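Hello,

Our lab assistant flagged a job as stuck in the queue for most of the afternoon. It eventually completed. Since we weren't sure the result was trustworthy after the delay, we are filing this so someone can double-check. Below is the sequence as submitted and the structure that was eventually returned. Let us know if re-running is recommended.
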Amino acid sequence: MSYRVFAVSLLVAVSAAVLAACGGGSEDGESGEERSFEEMEEAAEGTTVNFYLDAGDDAINAYVDEYVAPRVEEEHGIELRRTPISATEDGVNKLLNEKSASSQDGTMDLIWINGENFATGADADLWYGPWAEELPNTEYVDWESPEINQDFGYPVEGMEAPWGKAQFVMIYDSAEIEDPPQSMDELLAWTEENPGRFTYPAPPDFTGNAFVEHAFYQTTGEIERYQEPLDEEVFDEEAPQTWEYLNELEPNLWREGETYPESSSAMEELYANGEVWMNMSYNPQSAQRRVEDGIFPESTRTYVFEDGTLSNTHYVAVPFNSPNKAGAQVVANFLQSPEAQAEKQRAEVWGDLTALEIDRVPEEQQEELADVSGDAVLPTEELQENQLPEARAGWLLALEDGWQENVLR
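-- returned structure --
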């Protein structure tokens, strides 16, 4: 997914329908009449839900088309229509335009979203709600966790429902590396001993940004303050430590840091060809999938830094002008079901981490969510125990720009 939105803020104010906070009930977006979830299911039967999402991953598209759509049609009589968009910001910009035109007749019922895209929409009153904490399957979600109730530091406030999680992992070839570096300091020492065998994608690649963010966390020793809006004075004071570290690392990199892989895909090719011995990913099961596809060596393994690695949650939101808010909420509830979460977590399906707390789901499904198969993937519980929150968007944009100015040049 894309995490930046280039759109102007709008000075348009319209009242949003407020969901009731009792008994799983929800208000009808048009009439304001409180409805139970069962009543929403009845209203949604025989309707179509238009689901907008980034179309960049064939595995995700197949999961929605071949698993989710047939199930919601069978169980709820809903036709789920996946509407592909090239980037999430395109969907947000569509809604911004409709809001500017005061259009209450939308075509989008549900959108896959997180990060700055969600924040931009929230600031412009693009989202219907709150509703997400009233879904029946929300009993499996830990809304007290900042990993859930804050989206890249922005308060969710029930305006989007968690769908899944991503977590950064380091990938390495165990045939070449016996003890992989467990911190940024150890990584620097390892690259000095193994020059040319490590690199990272150049920002603004999302994975490259995440690596720089890890360096920012570890060199400054701070995390919590970066959950607040950007403080430029603090950034200017703290960031030079990160630039110093990355510049010290640079001559040890592949091609002596004269050039960086332009994307995560280019980085994967270097690892698959044995040019570098380490890789990284924001999908903790992607390495296993690449091994099974014969792309990565069978000796591939993954791990997380001793202080943890970045994790974020992705969500679905209902636009202010969705013509089928009831159907959208019914679909969102299905996406949160333990069965649907377990299916998408399978490496051969999507490999997306569950948004649910494993100890809250029924016992017969806990093992399925906790266990993952393959030598190149970590247990779900180990990942959940080593999660770090993403910095707020302003810090990330400042890091991206700062890397271009202070490291690349």
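-- support follow-up --
The delay was a queue issue, not a problem with the job. The result is valid. The chain has two domains: 26-165+312-376, 167-310+389-408. Confidence is low (pLDDT under 50) at residues 1-25.
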